[in-house]
Amino acid sequence: MTVLETQEHKDLRAAVAALGSRYGRDYLTRVVREGGHPEELWAEAGKLGYLGVNLPEEYGGGGGGITELSIVLEELGAVGSPLLMLVVSPAICGTVISRFGTEEQKRAWLPGLADGTRTMAFGITEPDAGSNSHRITTTARRDGEDWVLTGRKIFVSGVDIADATLIVGRTEDARTGKLKPCLFIVPRDAAGFQRNPVDMELQAAEKQFELVLDDVRLPADALVGDEDAGLLQLFAGLNPERIMTAAFAIGMGRFALARAVAYAKERSVWKEPIGAHQAIAHPLAQAHIALESARLMMQKAAHLYDRGDDVGAGEAANMAKYTAAEACVQAVDQSVHTLGGNGLTREYGLASLITASRVARIAPVSREMILNYVSHQTLGLPKSY
Ligand SMILES: Cc1cc2nc3c(=O)[nH]c(=O)nc-3n(C[C@H](O)[C@H](O)[C@H](O)COP(=O)(O)OP(=O)(O)OC[C@H]3O[C@@H](n4cnc5c(N)ncnc54)[C@H](O)[C@@H]3O)c2cc1C
Hints:
Blueprint (H helix, E strand, L loop, with lengths): L6 H27 L5 H9 L18 H13 L6 H16 L2 H13 L4 E4 L15 E5 L2 E12 L6 E8 L9 E7 L5 E5 L10 E11 L4 E2 L6 H36 L11 H29 L3 H29 L13 H11 L4 H12 L7
Helix pairs in contact: 1-3, 3-6, 4-5, 4-6, 6-7, 6-8, 7-8, 8-9, 8-10
This protein binds flavin-adenine dinucleotide (FAD).
């Protein structure tokens, strides 16, 4: 198995980093302060083919995989301007449509998702189900040729800027018992589809929403894939989501660490710069090692996914998300600490990452649920719930 990157991957990293650096942290900070979205960066990344690098070439994509898309997100994050919607639009929705969509759905959506002119959000989390997706109750019932969707979702990112949201529901006859999920494309302005922003303590361009689906009527072709295909189709999207969350976390951790290292080389309050004190240097070194190790796990997960090993990718994607989130939280914490009081100022821009880094620990699947997964699926330990 090749875990090291090819020359093309290195070139992609360098090119994306160059694009991101032209925007950087100041750009994103300004956009967030003005309540906008990083439209210019999104559009330019789309034009250069980075947003759809994982999507099939015949539909306007780059013909690569999650390996390449994770490089794009990590490098944008490492220069301080991550695009969270990459996690959902091309990675989840683009993947699910290209693997299970009809020819019409592929032609309708993939070229736009690839060049960034269209965006799709993804909604699975429900207020009364949370981490237990088997309890979701958003229900789809047939009415003639149409589908009618009813239910609620919470914390769904980017619904306001997305042309549509891929909603995970269950069919009416599957309302009880094991989850048989099915996926529907719900246009942003569909009648009965309401969104209410959640007041988050996060400085990010992408907002989270509570969604209410009140008898949302959809045509037959809103269903993506087979209504009986179940979890397989869902995990075709959820594994890329976990790998991309790892990329998001690694990028953020690298960004914070780079700022802290630069500061530790400059700041002197005794004879030497503070970076000469091992109490400062060693935790930064540990953070670097943790981020590099997380990247290795992410590369393994992406490699398994891209070669079609959905089962192997499942375990690796969970472990990559876990390792990357923990490495990110650790890197951000130590970076803020390295800057002393400046770590908490707006000017140095690290303090808001304390909150942001926690996102990777809780979403899209929490640290504890990954530990549960590894306990039960990998180690065969008994279940308490
Ligand atoms: C910024 C942000 C963006 C998001 N974007 C999206 C999105 O675009 N689409 C979407 O669908 N969702 C999104 N989410 C939702 C996210 O996936 C959920 O928050 C996450 O799955 C956890 O669910 P919950 O918040 O209901 O927590 P809960 O399930 O209520 O869990 C609360 C705590 O209990 C722990 N816990 C629960 N069960 C167990 C157990 N069996 N054993 C041990 N511990 C347990 C959890 O680990 C957690 O620490 C987003 C969330 C955030 C914060």
